[in-house]
Amino acid sequence: MSTTLSPTPASQTPAPAAQRAAGARRKRRSMVTAVLFALPALVLLGALVGYPILYSVVRSTFDAQGSHFVGLSNYAELFQDHNTLIALRNTATWVLVVPALLTGIGLVLAVLTEKIRWATAFKLIIFMPMAVSFLAAGITFRLVYDEDPNQGILNAATVGVHDAFTGTPAYPGARPRDGKTLSTGKNGDYTAVHRAEPGSPVTLGLVGITPAKLPTDAEQAVAAPTTRTPDAVSGVVYLDFALGGGGKPDQVDKGEKGLPGVTVQLTREGRTVATATTGPDGTFRFPDKGSGPFGVTVPAKNFAQPYAGVSWLGEALITPAIMAAYLWVWAGFSMVLIGAGLAALPRETLEAARMDGANEWQVFRKITVPLLAPVLSVVFVTLIINVMKVFDLVYIIAPGPVQQDANVLALQMWLVSFGGGNNQGLGSAIGVVLLLLVIPAMAINIRRFRRSR
């Protein structure tokens, strides 16, 4: 007895070709859907990024007016222009210094936040500058670096520390009236023209001091010390000027105040043999110094201009000053990213190292840092990209006379194109070079992100 199998209807078993066609239709529908969703973003990206890049590349091959094709002449000029070479040098300095410093600072801060009690408040304080615009940060640091100690907080602190150890000049700007009684030495000291003898008072009048700025204990000057000793050299240092006028030069008159607190030196054959300080009436006295003649000198430290601090915005320090402002702004970014990586580290590995006898420094150097290497490299490369584009802080903090000394590529591109140069061909060439410098760092970051997926 044989059994005959009836054929399966074609409608129940679709052909392989039909299956492939259905799969292809589904794939096309998915592709079309993805393109439709991505199209607005692609159009926006093309308009805001793609088109400007292409236009800059084309524009860089034309002259300043954009009317004549000049090929690569702008690129040749770029590497011959003095200001652009300074910008290239400064940009290279930023790339070599700032990302490494920021990564190290962020690592230290991230580790510290795990050791302190108020970690959240600490993170908030460090990260807060990231919420401040570069414009506001630049204005803030322009005031911080102000050379006037009455306005710049950094110079106020510098002057305060300096004066605490060295003191301040008693009468800055004081000078002899006409050089008849005092002569000026090579180092700014004032020396009595006539040699001094014991028992003969020396009268040293000075001008250039506002009476209102005299010490409150200043008294009426006297022509000679009240105690006359034949073997003592004595004298008076006074302000040779009285309110209301009158009186004679180089002579103590009524209303003329003595200058208290002035250091006076007695010299013989070029060597200082004694030092005295004037009293409230300006008098001084050197007792029992033997026979003369002597020289009487008022050191320049009494009249030197007060210490004004450091020229933070000068030619020598302008770039480090701007870098410090950048570190202040971006330290929070580095700390937060590295802190996130630190939180993801396997704690059992760290605890095992401590149980094996490793101290905290060994754990940090041999375990924490190697495990954080991928995060550190991402932070480092990201900061390189950001540093190459720095513009705002340099433009705002650097005063006009030293702006070229602090110049970077992004600022030079703006100056050449819009800041007075009006050469958009050369500016476009600088922009293209800046893009080419940024692309390798971007490629490294993209490849690392793909590996971590």
UniProtKB/TrEMBL annotation:
InterPro entries: MetI-like, MetI-like_sf, UgpAE/MalFG_permease. The chain crosses the membrane at residues 34-54, 92-112, 124-145, 325-346, 367-385, 425-446. It holds the Pfam family BPD_transp_1. Signal peptide: none annotated. Keywords: Cell membrane, Membrane, Transmembrane, Transmembrane helix, Transport. It is a multi-pass membrane protein. Residues 88-445 form the ABC transmembrane type-1 domain. Residues 1-22 are annotated as: Disordered. It is found in: Cell membrane. It comes from the Bacteria. One of its GO terms (biological process) is transmembrane transport. SUPFAM superfamilies: Cna protein B-type domain, MetI-like. One of its GO terms (cellular component) is plasma membrane. Belongs to the binding-protein-dependent transport system permease family. This is ABC transporter permease subunit.
